[in-house]
Design a protein that fits this description.
CATH topology of the largest domain: Glutaredoxin
CATH superfamily of the largest domain: Glutaredoxin
CATH class of the largest domain: Alpha Beta
Strand order of the largest sheet: 17-16-20-19-18-21-22
Shape: globular
CATH architecture of the largest domain: 3-Layer(aba) Sandwich
Largest sheet: 7 strands, mixed
Number of strands: 22
Number of domains: 3
Structural class: alpha+beta
Length: 428
């Protein structure tokens, strides 16, 4: 029997004047079917549902119910006034398994005619075909919104020159763009998600490593080309803006691509560092001075489940680490010292290498780690850590005795660790 996941929405319990005279709410929901198309395992898709009250009394949403943890409500209204429209945002997080998906999300309201409104969610979870030795590249014809004949001739010349360059390279395999363009333009998320996200998704599905896309932009004050290179193995877009003071030169665009591709590893490292820094700052801002999101994971040494809320009344230090992180090992010595700094201090090591139980056990035995080490054993368990973990290790989080997050630090910094050690002593 499926476990029912029920998301309860607080409802404002009030009655409008005239409700006793037969006035009632009337719910109108659009769409009632959400086809999210094709997605890769462990990726997300979002949909906005319109909720309109066409009745004469306030419409209250009592609850939302679904039979799967793959569906999650991101935003939901509590009450909708007569003739008012509000929006419900839901997310589908694809499981690790591939295949067809079809589930129903139920909206429960106080509309006497529509107390339970079903929204059917369906689509396909497809396995990616991309392999490490894949060097296939697709060139999307250069685009422009300009109607000037000279600009149209330029984009045609640029597309031709880039085709010649890509076809002549021994380290890349140029393949037709038809399939990826079809996948992109027919994707239900088209025009809703960033283009590079959809290119990356379809590159993985079709087994294509790179997608090269260029666009000419002309404004009153500027003329420039945006060069975008999507790598199926890299999460973030790789882009260059090439401005022109005179006539645009296709040769400059081709030279920029050659330089970018020659230093691809270095470019991706810089982009990754900036993206992780921003992601950490966003997560830190969302965490600080707020209740610590709860989670439940296995202590792999003691073979028992550990829940964060069980440590209310203690100062908790979470240390996120990975097996390949040298800086994490340096911090572990410091974590041992923190663990022994008082009876009301607990350190929880959390390894982000999902399911690698035996490897992690050998690692912590080799490093002589005495504090509890937790490990997510599945993608669903790992999802509990999303509010804390932004993709890089080490991450250190301090939670006070009331369960409030007081600090979150990413990376190894002696100055930062000294500040955290001082904070832990003050909290204890």
């Amino acid at each position: 029997m499926k476990k029912i996941f029920k998301i309860t929405i607080l409802v404002a319990l009030f009655a409008l004047l005239g409700a006793g005279c037969g006035k009632a709410p009337s719910a109108s929901v659009e769409p009632l079917n959400w086809d999210f198309g094709s997605v890769l395992p462990r990726t997300e898709a979002e949909q906005t549902i319109s909720l309109e009250n066409t009745g004469e009394a306030t419409l209250n949403l009592d609850s939302l119910t679904t039979s799967t943890s793959s569906l999650r409500v991101l935003e939901s209204p509590q009450a909708i006034l007569p003739l008012e429209k509000k929006y419900l945002k839901i997310e589908f997080k694809a499981p690790a398994d591939t295949g067809s998906f079809a589930e129903t999300l139920y909206i429960f309201t106080d509309d006497p005619q529509k107390k339970r409104i079903p929204i059917i969610v369906f689509g396909e979870v497809l396995a990616g075909k991309l392999t490490p030795d894949n060097q296939k590249i697709v060139l999307i014809p250069t685009q422009t919104t300009s109607k000037l004949e000279e600009d149209i001739l330029f984009v045609q010349a640029l597309t031709k020159q880039l085709l010649i360059e890509l076809d002549s390279r021994d380290d890349l395999q140029l393949v037709p763009a038809d399939e990826i363009i079809k996948g992109l333009t027919q994707d239900p998320q088209y025009m809703q998600r960033e283009t590079h996200e959809l290119f990356r998704k379809w590159a993985n599905i079709l087994g294509i490593r790179f997608v090269l896309f260029t666009q000419l932009e002309r404004t009153n004050s500027e003329l420039y080309v945006i060069l975008n290179l999507t790598d199926g193995y890299f999460k973030y877009p790789i882009a260059r803006k090439i401005p022109f003071k005179g006539d645009p030169d296709p040769g400059l665009i081709t030279a920029t691509f050659k330089q970018l591709y020659a230093n691809l590893g270095g470019e991706q490292q810089k982009i990754m560092q900036m993206a992780l820094q921003k992601e950490w700052m966003d997560k830190r801002s969302a965490l600080l001075n707020k209740p610590a999101p709860d989670f439940k994971l296995i202590d792999i040494r003691e073979k028992k489940m550990v829940r964060l809320k069980d440590f209310l009344g203690k100062t908790v230090v979470l240390h996120f680490f990975s097996l390949e992180c040298d800086a994490c090992e340096k911090e572990m010595v410091w974590m041992e010292r923190i663990m022994n700094s008082g009876d009301n201090v607990i350190v929880l090591g959390i390894c982000i290498d999902i399911g690698l139980k035996e490897e992690v056990l050998r690692f912590i035995a080799d490093k002589d780690i005495s504090y509890p080490v937790l490990l997510p054993m599945s993608a669903d368990e790992d999802g509990q850590l999303e509010p804390y973990y932004g993709g890089g290790t080490p991450i250190t989080v301090v939670i006070d005795k009331t369960g409030t997050v007081r600090e979150s630090l990413v990376g190894f910094s002696q100055k930062g660790l000294d500040a955290i050690e001082k904070m832990v002593k003050e909290l204890n």
